[in-house]
Amino acid sequence: MTESPDAFEKRARAFLDAHLPPRPARTPSDRVALLEEIDPEREAGTLRAAKRWQGLLYDAGFAELDGERADAFAALLSRYDAPDLQPLLVGLHIVAPAIRAHGSDDLKRRYLRPLLRGELTACQLFSEPDAGSDLASVRTRAVRDGDSWVVTGQKVWSSGAHHADLGEALVRTDPDAPKHKGLTLLLVDMHAPGVEVRPLRQMTGGASFNEVFLSEVRVPDADRIGPLNGGWTAAITSLSSERAALGGTVDAVPPDLVERLAEQARRRGVLTPAARARLGRLDAALTAAAQVNRSAGLDPAAAASISKLLVNRALALAVEAASAVLGPSLAADLGDGDHAWAEFLLGAPALRIAGGTDEIQRTILAERHLGLPRDPR
Ligand SMILES: Cc1cc2nc3c(=O)[nH]c(=O)nc-3n(C[C@H](O)[C@H](O)[C@H](O)COP(=O)(O)OP(=O)(O)OC[C@H]3O[C@@H](n4cnc5c(N)ncnc54)[C@H](O)[C@@H]3O)c2cc1C
């Protein structure tokens, strides 16, 4: 018998009451960062807490909920002080979906549950210095040797690679095939000999990205995701899921963004009609983005691209509003909480790039969903 919405809510509430304290009241200096600047010690604590919390969610059946239940659970969860699952998101929403859709039964058995329970963390090793938007140009080579592949190359912008157990690597296995056809997706053990992770410092101050150098890293063929030279299709599964679950959702934006900006403007006496209109436009853009995610009948992949574009438009409006309200006090930390917004401003451009840039989303929508003529290649 399926559980009624009321029974589900009751069960969810009892679970959350048992495991989490209520969310503390917000203060003006609470962080609004989009890419958190986090020191290694705090990061290790966040990772431990995320793993523990994800294990509890998984074991209680709250880790993978469908649309309505996911919304109901998220609404309840927002009232509690829950651990941040950020360090696990690549494993949960990028790597696990590709293994589920394309992996062998053996691969699913070995990795799906540990990834979904948060026991294993993962990173995405797709981008390279000369392969970002044009991802099919990846040059990292994998050469067959008995039951294994020997992988050599350089990846870049690898979020969370410094604490990842696994890396989902798009590699070239047939250099003579047309570029989309010579690629394979491999699951690399990030602790294997030959894997070197070097942090990249961001303008927000933190270092959540890395360069990853792969020097003759051995990867068993049993850890291949999908068919040999069929890596492009498997990679698209990861990219679509990434857009749907991460880059393209309003969840990336602090939930009370408009309210907080209005509060700042009121405090400074600059909640003018022009400021109100600006905040109104921001609210409308965020509402539109949230609605697209819920629209029935819209192709989920198209919805993800549209939603990502709308979220990014909202972020641009938020940056404009925050700059107008806070002005020069964004530049220096005077201990009044305003500096929290500097992290927001500096992190916003990243979301326009991550998971495929805005220009690429428009091309995807035009070519794949609207059937418009293809961009010249
Ligand atoms: C927060 C964040 C996290 C990331 N995490 C990861 C990760 O974990 N793993 C990973 O592999 N990568 C990651 N990336 C990298 C990301 O996927 C790439 O940065 C992105 O695909 C763009 O590639 P690029 O940086 O090489 O820019 P380029 O592709 O060089 O693009 C430069 C500019 O040219 C434009 N452009 C390029 N091609 C076209 C075209 N055909 N038509 C119109 N305009 C075009 C782009 O829109 C952009 O404005 C991350 C990036 C960010 C910002």
List the helices and strands and how they pair.
Elements: H1 5-19, H2 40-59, H3 67-77, H4 89-102, H5 105-116, E1 122-125, E2 141-145, E3 148-156, E4 166-172, E5 183-189, E6 195-200, E7 209-220, E8 224-225, H6 231-247, H7 257-267, H8 273-294, H9 300-326, H10 340-353, H11 358-369
Parallel strand pairs: 1-4
Antiparallel strand pairs: 2-3, 3-7, 4-5, 5-8, 6-7
Helix pairs in contact: 1-3, 4-5, 4-6, 6-9, 7-8, 7-9, 8-9, 9-10, 9-11
Flavin-adenine dinucleotide (FAD) is lined by residues 123-127, 132-133, 157-159, 350, 353-354, 356-357, 359-360, 363, 375.
Domain Acyl-CoA dehydrogenase/oxidase C-terminal: 229-368
Domain Acyl-CoA oxidase/dehydrogenase middle: 123-213
Cofactor: FAD
- Main beta sheet: strand number and arrangement? 4 strands, mixed
* CATH C-level category of the largest domain: Mainly Alpha
**CATH architecture annotation name of the largest domain:** Up-down Bundle
- Report how far the terminal alpha carbons are from each other: 53 Å
Physical arrangement of strands within the biggest beta sheet = 1-4-5-8
**What is the number of helical segments per DSSP (H or I, 4+ residues)?**
11
Oligomer: single chain
Rg (CA only): 22 Å
Beta strands, count? 8
As for the number of domains, it is 3
Structural class: alpha+beta
| Mean pLDDT across all amino acids | 90
The residue ranges in which pLDDT falls below 50 over 5 or more consecutive positions are none
Our estimate of the beta-strand percent is 5-15%
* CATH superfamily membership of the largest domain: Butyryl-CoA Dehydrogenase, subunit A, domain 3
Helix content: 40-55%
